[in-house]
Amino acid sequence: MKFYIETYGCQMNVSDSELVSGILLNAGWEQAFAIDDADLILFNTCSVRQHAEDRVLGRIANEKHRKMQNPELKIAVLGCMAQRVGKRLLEKDFGVDFVVGVDQYLQLPELLSQERGMETEFDHFQIYPGLKPVHGDQSCAFVTIMRGCDNFCSYCIVPHVRGRERSVDFEQIVEEVAKCGDNGMKDVTLLGQNVNSYRWGDYNFPRLLLELNKIDSIYRLRFVTSHPKDLSDGLVQAMADCDKVCEHIHLPLQSGSNPVLKAMNRKYTIEHYFGLVEKLRAAIPNISLTTDLIAGFPGETHADFELTLDAMREIRFDYAFCFKYSEREGTAACSFENQVPETERLSRLQEMIDLQREITLEKFSAQVGNEIEVYVESLSKKSVHQVSGKTRDYKIAVLDGDESDIGTLKKARVKSATAGTLIC
Ligand code: SAH
Ligand code: SF4
Ligand code: F3S
């Protein structure tokens, strides 16, 4: 019996899909290379914005016709939407046979031996100890170091669908990262909703970085996501001291206005954030900064929104993921009054995107003429004589090369730039 997984949402879900592949392979399933060969299609889903859920429902509706040709075919929904929507996915005529939440993946083999079923209990201690995720044949690896989130930002569904924050065993992480390096994945990203609050016994996150930095088989270490309220001086120092930790941090700002940050329950002020940027730039020259921003949060006035644009101009992020606020049922902000009209959310979002595009282009163009070090990840899509990869400061670069360069570091000089690629 063969399974095929389609993954939506953040890197945590990508990592969970690798975990699920490991669990199913151990139980005797085989991986299908194409959806046409599958006896079981698993959708690992995201709930962060309504759009993410609508997309998956559309995909399932598109695939369920396959059941007419193959009555044995089963469809399973995993992940955050399975957790949020639960049995409603089984009740309606969605064509879904199994619904499995984020802490119940060990139950999958048993559940799949039944006709239909659901497991969505939270298990606030589940860290999937000792399991070997299947990293596929990529050159970069993503290693989950914590699960869940306790922050309850008022707009966010993640704590409701991922459960409480818990860290993965220190030794298990060290072993996993070393194994990734041994298997040719030299660029490793540590994952968690809030990696700065990692804790295992006496070990905190800076300590984990110092330990992982000793692993010879990897070239580069990255991590997402950092919460500005938990970014300690110790972490800034560890980033500066560890030669494998790349000169990049993703530090979601969300808004440049203090009343909005307060209503979002972010627990920091814009002044605190500016202070962090200053510290990071002082300790790590040329560090690149990326962020997440939300347009049209409930109660956001035009003056609040202008403060976000001001912060963008002042900080000059290398890149910003800009989102339009999306109401999530069950979150605090969903019941706030003063919801911003949809058209206004859209126009603010567009303004943000346009401003960031300009800044990103300037940031990328400033690298023309520089010699950069690229970790080659794949062949370029446009030419067989070119490869693509990332710089240490998390910019995509395209350079001359061939398949044998994948998984290696190459030096090159930047000839030109777009707002997304350095061309060497
Ligand atoms: N744990 C991470 C990422 C969480 S989700 C963090 O704290 O940064 C990724 C991003 O999605 C968030 O940073 C936020 O900008 C955005 N997001 C979350 N909920 C949202 C919502 N309801 N509407 C719009 N954007 C949202
Ligand atoms: Fe969501 Fe906030 Fe947790 Fe990030 S820190 S996952 S935005 S609740
Ligand atoms: Fe989406 Fe779940 Fe990640 S809601 S963003 S897949 S944690």
Architecture overview:
With 424 residues, this protein is of the alpha/beta class. The protein has three domains: 2-119, Rossmann fold (3-Layer(aba) Sandwich), CATH 3.40.50; 140-365, tm_1862 like domain (pyruvate-formate lyase- activating enzyme, Alpha-Beta Horseshoe), CATH 3.80.30.20; 371-423. The chain is built from 14 helices and 22 strands. The strands form six sheets. Strands 2-1-3-4-5-6 form a six-stranded parallel beta sheet, sandwiched between helices. Helix 13 (302-315) runs parallel beside helix 14 (342-365). The mean pLDDT is 96. The protein binds S-adenosyl-L-homocysteine, iron/sulfur cluster and FE3-S4 cluster (F3S). Residues 48-49, 155-156, 158, 193-194, 225, 227, 252, 254, 292, 294, 323, 325-326, 328 line the site of S-adenosyl-L-homocysteine (SAH).
Helix content: 25-40%
Heteromolecules bound? S-adenosyl-L-homocysteine, iron/sulfur cluster, FE3-S4 cluster
The number of distinct structural domains comes to 3
Outline: globular
Radius of gyration: 22 Å
Produce the secondary structure layout.
Elements (H helix, E strand, L loop, with lengths): L1 E6 L3 H16 L3 E2 L8 E6 L4 H14 L2 H4 L4 E5 H7 L2 H4 L6 E3 L7 H5 L4 E3 L20 E5 L1 E2 L10 H5 L3 E2 L2 H13 L4 E5 L7 E2 L2 E2 H8 L7 E5 L8 H9 L6 E3 L7 H6 L6 H14 L4 E8 L6 H14 L3 E6 L17 H24 L5 E9 L6 E6 L4 E5 L8 E5 L2 E2 L3 E3 L1
Parallel strand pairs: 1-2, 1-3, 3-4, 4-5, 5-6, 7-10, 10-13, 14-15, 15-16, 19-22
Antiparallel strand pairs: 8-9, 11-12, 17-18, 17-20, 18-19, 21-22
The structure holds S-adenosyl-L-homocysteine, iron/sulfur cluster and FE3-S4 cluster.
The site of iron/sulfur cluster has 10 residues, from helix 7.
